[in-house]
Amino acid sequence: MSVPTSILTADSDQLFADWGETIQFEEVLRRYDVATGREEDRVFRSTLTAVRQTLAQQPVEGISATLSLTRRQYLVRARDLPAGAKLTSARLAVDETQFEIRTVTESQMPGVLLLDCISAGNLE
């Protein structure tokens, strides 16, 4: 017996209401300016509600464990993403840290995506 989609959607909505936090979604579009000979980034920002899962920090191989990258996973609702957003060129800004989106997986909850991210460094 399968669970009706309406029940799964209601459950995921409750999950986001209870555990969600507001984060910045940044889509980065890079283009080459022929006139200046430089690459330019245009960043389009919007806010999302996401449910965070913090994973263990892992030392970077070959660096005496002095530099750690933080890996996190975020659940986001696909309907909350900007229309036409390209997740391959996007990042998340959370608590003054930028996270590059490495992989995107469809969750078992309808309309929910799992973003596997790694810290890209502190915001300046």
From TrEMBL:
It comes from the Bacteria. This is Phage head-tail joining protein. It comes from Planctomicrobium piriforme.
